[in-house]
Write a structure and sequence with these properties.
By secondary structure, this protein is mostly helical. It contains four helices and no strands. α2 (16-25) packs across α3. The longest helix is centred in the middle third of the chain and has 32 residues, at 30-61.
Protein backbone atom coordinates (compact mmCIF):
# COMPACT_ATOMS: atom_id res chain seq x y z
CA UNK A 1 0.00 0.00 0.00
CA UNK A 2 1.47 3.34 -0.95
CA UNK A 3 1.60 6.40 1.26
CA UNK A 4 -1.40 7.98 -0.45
CA UNK A 5 -3.63 4.94 0.05
CA UNK A 6 -2.81 4.78 3.77
CA UNK A 7 -3.97 8.39 4.10
CA UNK A 8 -7.22 7.55 2.31
CA UNK A 9 -7.96 4.68 4.65
CA UNK A 10 -7.44 6.86 7.73
CA UNK A 11 -9.70 9.55 6.30
CA UNK A 12 -12.52 7.33 5.10
CA UNK A 13 -16.00 8.76 5.20
CA UNK A 14 -18.70 6.40 6.34
CA UNK A 15 -21.58 6.16 3.87
CA UNK A 16 -23.43 3.49 5.84
CA UNK A 17 -26.46 5.63 6.62
CA UNK A 18 -26.90 6.68 2.99
CA UNK A 19 -26.50 3.08 1.80
CA UNK A 20 -29.06 1.80 4.29
CA UNK A 21 -31.56 4.53 3.41
CA UNK A 22 -31.27 3.68 -0.28
CA UNK A 23 -31.67 -0.05 0.32
CA UNK A 24 -34.68 0.41 2.60
CA UNK A 25 -36.27 2.70 -0.01
CA UNK A 26 -35.74 -0.09 -2.54
CA UNK A 27 -37.66 -2.45 -0.26
CA UNK A 28 -34.87 -4.57 1.19
CA UNK A 29 -35.27 -5.94 4.69
CA UNK A 30 -33.96 -8.69 6.94
CA UNK A 31 -31.13 -10.87 5.66
CA UNK A 32 -31.52 -9.52 2.13
CA UNK A 33 -30.93 -5.98 3.47
CA UNK A 34 -27.79 -7.12 5.29
CA UNK A 35 -26.46 -8.95 2.23
CA UNK A 36 -27.07 -6.00 -0.10
CA UNK A 37 -25.59 -3.59 2.44
CA UNK A 38 -22.37 -5.62 2.58
CA UNK A 39 -22.14 -5.66 -1.22
CA UNK A 40 -22.67 -1.92 -1.57
CA UNK A 41 -20.38 -1.03 1.35
CA UNK A 42 -17.59 -3.08 -0.23
CA UNK A 43 -17.89 -0.99 -3.42
CA UNK A 44 -17.58 2.42 -1.71
CA UNK A 45 -13.84 2.53 -0.95
CA UNK A 46 -12.75 1.35 -4.43
CA UNK A 47 -15.11 3.86 -6.06
CA UNK A 48 -13.83 6.76 -3.96
CA UNK A 49 -10.22 5.71 -4.55
CA UNK A 50 -10.87 5.59 -8.31
CA UNK A 51 -12.27 9.13 -8.22
CA UNK A 52 -9.25 10.37 -6.26
CA UNK A 53 -6.78 8.60 -8.56
CA UNK A 54 -8.47 10.05 -11.65
CA UNK A 55 -8.33 13.53 -10.14
CA UNK A 56 -4.64 13.05 -9.35
CA UNK A 57 -3.95 11.92 -12.93
CA UNK A 58 -5.74 14.95 -14.32
CA UNK A 59 -3.85 17.26 -11.97
CA UNK A 60 -0.51 15.78 -13.07
CA UNK A 61 -1.43 16.24 -16.73
CA UNK A 62 -2.40 19.86 -16.19
CA UNK A 63 0.15 22.44 -17.19
CA UNK A 64 -0.01 26.05 -16.14
CA UNK A 65 -0.89 28.01 -13.05
CA UNK A 66 -4.63 28.18 -13.48
CA UNK A 67 -4.49 31.98 -13.76
CA UNK A 68 -6.15 32.03 -17.18
CA UNK A 69 -8.98 29.81 -16.01
CA UNK A 70 -9.52 32.00 -12.94
CA UNK A 71 -9.67 35.10 -15.15
CA UNK A 72 -12.28 33.42 -17.35
CA UNK A 73 -14.37 32.49 -14.34
CA UNK A 74 -14.18 35.83 -12.54
CA UNK A 75 -13.79 38.34 -15.36
CA UNK A 76 -17.39 39.55 -14.94
CA UNK A 77 -16.76 40.37 -11.28
CA UNK A 78 -13.54 42.23 -12.08
CA UNK A 79 -15.47 44.59 -14.37
CA UNK A 80 -17.67 45.75 -11.49
Amino acid sequence: MNKLNSKRIQGDVDFSEEILKELVEKGYSGKQLIDEFKKMKAKVRPAVNNIIEEAERKAKEYEGTGDEEMKDIFEDIEKI
